[in-house]
Amino acid sequence: MTASATHRAIEAVWRIESARIIAGLARMVRDVALAEDLAQEALVVALTLRLLGGLSTAEIARAGTGC
């Protein structure tokens, strides 16, 4: 997969899942702006860990479900 294809795939998944992630975080922290910041930070951390080989895609997906 090329870098641009990877970038498009990440953007597509983020567009699909970000509202659900932010909504769940907003319920926990009671602050939508903070929830948006936390969700974006979590994405950066997950992508960084994946890039460094620390997490598999299955582990990242599992972390998103709370399991």
Outline of the structure:
The protein contains three helices and no strands. The chain is mainly α.
How does this structure look, described?
The protein has 67 residues and is mostly helical. It has one domain (3-65). It is 84% helix and 0% strand. α1 (3-29) packs antiparallel against α2 (32-51). The chain is globular, with a radius of gyration of 13 Å. The model has no long low-confidence stretch (mean pLDDT 85).
Layout of strands and helices, then pairs:
Elements: H1 3-29, H2 32-51, H3 57-65
Helix pairs in contact: 1-2
Main beta sheet? none
Residues in helices, as a percent range: over 70%
- Rounded average pLDDT: 85
Number of domains: 1
Counting H and I runs of at least 4 residues, what is the number of helices? 3
Gross morphology is: globular
- What is the strand content? under 5%
Rg for CA atoms: 13 Å
The end-to-end span amounts to: 29 Å
Uncertain residue ranges: none
Quantity of strands, as a count = 0
